[in-house]
Amino acid sequence: MLFDPEACKPIHNRNISVTTYDFNAAAIALEGRLADDWLVDSYDLFGKRRSPNIVHGMVVRMIVRIPELVVEAVEAEMNTVPYPECPQAIDSLMPLIGERISAGFTAKVQQLVGGAQGCAHLLALCRAMGSAAIQGAFAMLSQQPPEAHDITKDSLKRVIDTCHLWRADGPMVQQLKSRYCHKDESDCAAVSKTRGRPSGRP
Predict the structure, then answer these.
(1) Selection from 141, 152, 161 nearest residue 184 by Cα
(2) What span, in angstroms and rounded, lies between the C-alpha atoms of 96 and 65?
(3) Which end of the chain has fewer surrounding CB within 10 Å, N or C?
């Protein structure tokens, strides 16, 4: 173990949670929550003393169309912030509407809602929600066997080379290719060409 948490004094805890809901047959709904809990007495940037408290408390909700994984709606709440100017960034997530959660989504989020017009903590929450949306979509669709919906080849393309298990030349991908791509050589070729692209993780 790199260090013993029991022997150290905790000073901060960041908790990010994302829950996915069955919105309707064509979409999932996500609610993400971020809380930064400062566990020690501290001073703000103007020298004002603060007792241990939650400094950032944020909520983001999204409606995501499946299986395309396109953001159809988004809203934010900034329930706990350290400075009165912070809520001015509450509408900064609107440019995400219409964006597809796929390879490069994290960089797209940074480009669209980062910087001087946005909020770093809403940004961190949206990044986490991108990967969570993929898991939520799989959970939604996998309530029925793969044969019940025609998305498996497209799903395979999205996860190729995103980790060791999903490497293009690994046994998992090869088995799934033989199961779902054998009827359509163009789909097999498309899956194979995915190798070497940037990670499909959001």
Answers:
(1) 152
(2) 13
(3) N
> E strands within the chain?
12-24, 27-38, 42-43, 49-50, 53-65, 70-80
Terminal Cα-to-Cα distance of the chain (whole angstroms): 30
Distance CA 172, CA 150 (A): 19
Q: Helices 120-141 & 105-113, crossing angle to 10 degrees?
A: 140
